[in-house]
Amino acid sequence: MAKITLDNLAHSYLPNPQSEEDFALKELNHDWVDGEAYALLGASGCGKSTLLNIISGLLQPSQGRILFNDVDVTHAPTAERNIAQVFQFPVVYDTMTVRDNLAFPLKNRGEDPAYIASRVQQIAQMIGMEDVLGRKARGLTADAKQKISLGRGMVREDVNALLFDEPLTVIDPHMKWELRTQLKSLHHEFGHTMIYVTHDQTEALTFADKVVVMYDGRVVQIGTPEELFARPEHTFVGYFIGSPGMNVLPAQVSGAMAHVGGAEIALGAFYGATEGKIEIGVRPEFTRLSAREGLPVNIRRVEDVGRHKIVRAEVFGNEINIISGEDEEISADMTRVTFDAAAINVYRNDWRVAPLGVAA
């Protein structure tokens, strides 16, 4: 297990980068705590896999250092970093049995045969492959082979970190939840430092202690699922986390009031002078339709998703989403929308503005 330090780390795939825009991974300075489980979450091309490959040693960064437990491993080869990595598509030895595939990392290190047998049995049970331990990997389905890859990554107990690069892509949807649960159980039992790359917010939020949200090559927020939901530090976090994501409206902010399209909205806190592109963000869960108060809203359609209704609407030409209860009636006279003041965040140039104090 290891604390992982990213020190002034950045990477460009161009030979002579001239500006920040030339960097696929923009400058990072972070300490990731020993023994925690992290998910790198973001859209395709945001830098997740680039960062993971730098941590694993598959890629040398253009600048900066990476340290394991304060030891500089920036130029150390992958074999010397004592990590296990599971890739998006299965990597298995087709001519070996499932048992031998799982045992391979332990045999390579000369572990005691009795320990190897016990550990392989334990991992096989975890990934649901006890009944095929004696079968050759050749001929197994893609998701079965990926389970072998996952098992081989998890079989060692002494690694500095376990790295997963979208490992459930080829797994049957029914198995995904079970394997995520098993990975979380493994983490709680053995306390490995785990880093899990995904573009799926459900995978990230159910697996990780801390979610590292990436956007345009930079980390925009590291936090617990609760923190990402309640206080998105960047508008992208608000948009990417949640279904639907956070509503963002252009506004002017003065003191404890926001002005949207000429209408006033009470905020739950006081703010100082705000300049630049100012917006307010509020999640659909904290909006309510009304017949008498709030901002004028134009309802475009209502989607019943079973446990609640999603109202697709417009406020002063801006699209917003409103979540209503499954049993809540939406009548024709509901032409206004209100926001929970305590749940409104203020953004300047896409970054959250810290309030100066709580409104009375």
UniProtKB/TrEMBL annotation:
Family membership: Belongs to the ABC transporter superfamily.
Q: Which organism is it from?
A: Litorivita pollutaquae
Q: Which GO terms describe its cellular component?
A: ATP-binding cassette (ABC) transporter complex, substrate-binding subunit-containing
Q: Which classification does the entry list for the species?
A: Bacteria, Pseudomonadati, Pseudomonadota, Alphaproteobacteria, Rhodobacterales
Describe the location of the ABC transporter domain by residue ranges. 4-241
One Pfam family name from the record?
OB_MalK
Which keywords, in A-to-Z order, does the entry hold?
Answer: ATP-binding, Cell membrane, Membrane, Nucleotide-binding, Transport
Has UniProt tagged this entry with the keyword Nucleotide-binding? yes
Can you name this protein?
Answer: ABC transporter ATP-binding protein
* Record-level Gene Ontology MF annotations: ABC-type ferric iron transporter activity; ATP binding; ATP hydrolysis activity
Top-rank taxon of the source lineage equals Bacteria
